[in-house]
Every structure is written in C-alpha cells, then in structure tokens.
Specification:
By secondary structure, the chain is of the alpha+beta class. 47% of the residues lie in helices and 15% in strands. Strands 1, 2, 3, 4, 5 and 6 form a 6-stranded antiparallel beta sheet that branches.
Length: 212
C-alpha cells in the first residue's frame, strides 16, 4: 500500500502528470479507508472500542477478525495518506518553483534582448511626422512616428540635412530604396520606391530632422 516517491527524489523533473497520478493514488487510498470504516460501522464498532466484554473475554457479538483487520488496514492507509499528501505538496511546490524560474528567465532574456537591440541600433537622424493615404510611402509601410536610421544611401553617419534625402529621392525615381526605421524600440526595414502618384512629390510623406 506504500506509495512510491521516485519523482520526488530529485532523479527527474516533476510533471503535471506526476501530480495527477499522485492525486489519483490519494483518492484510491481514501476510498479504501472509507471501505474499512464501513466494515467497522457494519460491526457496530469504531477504531477505539474494546473488543472484550466486561468479564475480559473476547466479544462474541462481532467478527473480531474483520474488525482487527479493518483497524490495522485503516492505520496503515492513514500513514500512506499522510505520506502521499506530503509528496503532492512537494510536487506542486517544485512545479510552481520551476514555472516561476522559467518566467523570470524569459523576462530576463527579453530584457537582455531589448537592451542589446538598443545598444546596437544607431541613433535616428529624422522622423516621419505625416504619411498620406495612398502614397508610395504609405504603400511601403512607412508610419507616422517612424524614426529613420537609413534611407537609401543616407544613414546616421553621413546625414547632414533633409537635402540629402531629397537628392536620393530625385535620383531614385522608379527604383526601390531600402529604408530602415526604429518603430516602438524595434528595427523595421522596408522597400520604398519614389514615384509619381496623385499627390505631391514622389513619396507622400513629411520627414523632419532630429537634432541630437
């Protein structure tokens, strides 16, 4: 009737299935205990009543063998029940501790990744403050608030003023330009082709320089 505690010995990691199996064993032990209590109830005795009469002789009105067997088994099963409850508690503690450690690890990795990206991203030199619907810029995926770190051949290292971008646009009509922006702290790349459209200019967006 003793339960095995192989998983709580540290040999292998506890799983939710292990916990479910322990709970199933606990339920089975409780069913067995109830069955033996039913035996005692049928005999009209509990676990403590004496099994001898007033004169010191074994009682003849009950089945002594059944009662002694039931009492012994109840005692053993109650010890098993205590042991398996400890196993269940330890298993749940291990599961929760592992889940907490995993969450903390995931959060730490996410923070480290964000910090690495912030460190490796160059500072932006301009920001998009307007994008017209239906324009080439809109079609390329450019959004208001995007901060430019690359626009064709223009980048943080060689940007001087907006004339640099205007020159690249004029010389690249009909040709795709690689545009790299910082959006919500993340780097995003897109292909933007300056071209004639129903609105003004070749892009359909407004770009302002960032002074840092």
């Amino acid at each position: 009737m003793k339960t095995t505690g192989g998983n709580s010995s540290g040999q292998s990691e506890i799983t939710m299935e292990d916990v479910q199996n322990l709970v199933k064993k606990k339920d089975e032990i409780e069913e067995q205990i109830k069955a033996y209590y039913d035996v005692l109830e049928d005999q009209g005795v509990g676990v403590e009543e004496p099994l001898i009469d007033e004169e010191g002789f074994p009682r003849s009105d009950v089945n002594l063998y059944q009662i002694r067997t039931a009492r012994h088994n109840i005692s053993c099963l109650q010890n098993d029940h205590k042991a398996i409850m400890v196993e269940i508690e330890e298993a749940l503690h291990q599961l929760h501790a592992r889940e907490k450690a995993k969450r903390q690890q995931d959060e730490t990795e996410a923070q480290e990744e964000a910090m690495e990206q912030q460190v490796t991203l160059p500072p932006p030199f301009a920001r998009v403050d307007a994008v017209t619907q239906g324009s080439p810029a809109c079609g390329a995926g450019l959004r208001v608030g995007d901060e430019l770190i690359e626009f064709g051949s223009v980048n943080t290292g060689n940007f001087q003023n907006l004339q640099n971008i205007a020159s690249v646009v004029q010389h690249s009509e009909g040709k795709p330009l690689r545009v790299t922006v910082i959006r919500a702290g993340q780097k995003a790349q897109m292909s933007l082709t300056p071209q004639r459209w129903s609105g003004r200019g070749l892009l359909g967006c407004n770009i302002v320089p960032l002074h840092r």
